[in-house]
Write a structure and sequence with these properties.
Layout lengths: L36 H11 L18 E7 L5 E7 H8 L5 E5 L5 E2 L2 E2 L8 E6 L5 E2 L6 E14 L2 E3 L4 H15 L2 E17 L2 E3 L19 H15 L4 E6 L5 E9 L1 H21 L3 E3 L15 E7 L16 H21 L22 E3 L6 E4 L8 E4 L8 H17 L19 H7 L9 H10 L1 H7 L1 H18 L7 H11 L1
Helix pairs in contact: 3-7, 4-5, 6-7, 6-9, 7-10, 9-11, 10-11
Length: 510
């Protein structure tokens, strides 16, 4: 439940007291922590006998023998092709460095092909050299993400609109060039550690929110070893880990990673999840991001922290909330709250996701609203009176969601508000949550929209939101819904299986 709000901050001095809070981050000061393309290409030039610039971190010097070329599908499964470094360097000499992959990869769930897809045709998964990082969880391996391209141009274009990374990149570019606005995003990643026995899956310890005395934090325990190795592995991979701590459910933990531009943030989140899975597995455990494993305790979220950065200079104070929001922030928030019900199909993709976001359990609640440091609001304004570190925490996100689609949805909603200059008509919900307000009080606060209570409603809202469809792409929306419907059918409890068996299947996937 602790969040990046505790670290997005401004230094203070004893002689000059200030209410500013947090470490100040800006798009120009953050680093993705990846290996530079220049270093990789310099190594390639040297291998060819051509003198290049000085090598800062060639893959061989880092002990890398294999490179994982990765992509994340609509169901949030990470796929990869493992390349030898020698073959990786050979690919980099090609006009389009990459490997071919069947087009059906974006329309297959487990082994089920979604209607509308075909086994015919291939994409080229083109290497994005800006995303190379060492795998701290797999010695001898590095990872790199790619963009899907058509093998041959269609309508004169190679880009594949359905590619989640390509689509997010396009949306960010539109915001930067058309609206002169950039964003930073950080994530809280919650997960539960489980052990497997003949009687099923079990947490190795009881809950102890932020407690140093919980058995899961005791020196010498496997859980603490897992957490420390996760921290070390993320550092090796160049990802800024700000903190980790125990959470409220049995054997539940949270890691908090620093803010990055949206595409880099999505890459880092995917890599963070892979790190958590793999380090847990190394110690004979299973890490799970299942939204709510225990009906009587808290669930796993993936809260997104978003700050808004106009590139044309400081944004003036908003007319309606001059002391707590700039004009850009106010319009972004207006768009976010307006379209939040529509993008929850991206942020909460499973039927089980909606068991986590109920009223009264500090997970965002069931109303589209916002609140100053309010953990029962779907959007929390944090550091309201520290302009250099102020940002929004979106709580209706969980770890089963594709991070590229999550940010495409959240940022699209916000940029609609900026583009259309939306007025923020929803007021801070105050001390109480949207659900605790009476109908008349909600109307007074401008809180008029309930969030979808199930994934079927979320899909319907997404399909019906024309403005979101225009920004994200109608084809992306239709295809995602079709894939998500298939995923939902395959991951609900089947008639012939027990509830425990259904939970085990879900944990095996997420």
């Amino acid at each position: 439940m602790n969040s990046i709000k505790e670290t997005m901050v401004h230094a203070t001095t004893l002689s000059s007291p200030t209410i500013d809070f947090g470490i100040r981050y800006a798009p120009t000061t953050v680093s993705a922590g990846t290996i530079t393309a220049e270093a990789i290409l310099a190594r390639m030039h040297t291998a060819n006998g051509v003198s290049g610039p000085g090598l800062s971190q060639p893959l061989e010097d880092l002990g890398v023998k294999f490179v994982r070329l990765q992509w994340v599908d609509f169901s949030n499964f990470v796929h990869c092709r493992v390349l030898t470094t020698s073959h990786f360097y050979k690919l980099l000499r090609a006009s389009r460095p990459g490997v071919t992959v069947a087009k059906v990869v974006l329309g297959i769930v487990f082994l089920t092909m979604v209607e509308g897809f075909s086994p015919a045709g291939e994409y080229v998964l083109v290497i994005d050299l800006a995303s190379v990082r060492v795998c701290g969880y797999a010695p001898g391996h590095a990872a790199v993400f790619g963009y899907f391209q058509e093998k041959y141009p269609i309508g004169g274009k190679l880009d594949v609109p359905l590619c989640p990374r390509t689509n997010l990149r396009r949306i960010i570019k539109y915001a930067a060039e058309g609206l002169k606005t950039e964003f930073l995003v950080g994530f809280e990643t919650e997960f539960i550690l489980l052990t497997t026995t003949k009687s099923g899956i079990h947490p190795p310890n009881n809950h102890g929110w932020s407690s140093s005395r919980t058995t899961g934090f005791a020196s010498g325990t496997t859980e603490l070893k897992v957490l420390e190795e996760i921290a070390d592995a993320l550092a090796t991979s160049g990802i800024e880990l700000q903190m980790f701590h125990s959470e409220a459910a049995p054997a539940q933990y949270e890691v908090v990673t620093g803010p990055l531009p949206p595409l880099e943030a999505a890459d880092a989140l995917a890599h963070t999840r892979e790190t958590i899975y793999n380090i847990a597995s190394k110690h004979g455990m299973r890490a799970t991001f299942v939204p709510r494993l225990y009906a009587d305790s808290c669930g796993n979220g993936a809260h997104a922290h978003i700050s808004v950065h106009p590139t044309t200079g400081p944004s003036p104070p908003s007319e309606s909330h001059p002391s707590t929001l700039t004009t850009h922030e106010s319009r972004f928030l207006a768009g976010l709250v307006t379209h939040l019900p529509s993008i929850m199909a991206f942020t909460l993709p499973l039927p089980q996701s909606y068991a986590r976001v109920k009223d009264g359990i500090r997970s965002g609640g069931t109303w589209a609203c916002w609140g100053d440091e309010h953990r029962e609001a779907s959007v929390r304004l944090t550091n309201a009176h520290s302009p250099q570190t102020r940002h929004f925490e979106v709580r209706t996100v969980d770890g089963t969601a594709n991070p590229y689609l999550v940010l495409a949805g959240l940022i699209s909603a916000g940029i609609i508000g900026i583009r259309d200059q939306l007025e923020l008509t929803v007021e801070d919900c105050g001390e109480r949550s949207g659900a605790q307000l009476s109908e008349a009080e909600r109307a007074e606060h401008g809180i008029t929209k309930m969030l979808p209570l199930d994934v079927e409603s979320a899909r319907r809202y997404l399909l019906e939101d024309q403005k979101i469809g225009e920004v994200i792409g109608e084809e992306v929306v239709r295809t995602y819904v079709a894939v998500n419907e298939t995923l939902g059918r395959l991951r609900v409890q089947q008639e012939t299986e027990s509830e425990d068996a259904a939970v085990v299947r879900l944990v095996e996937s997420y």
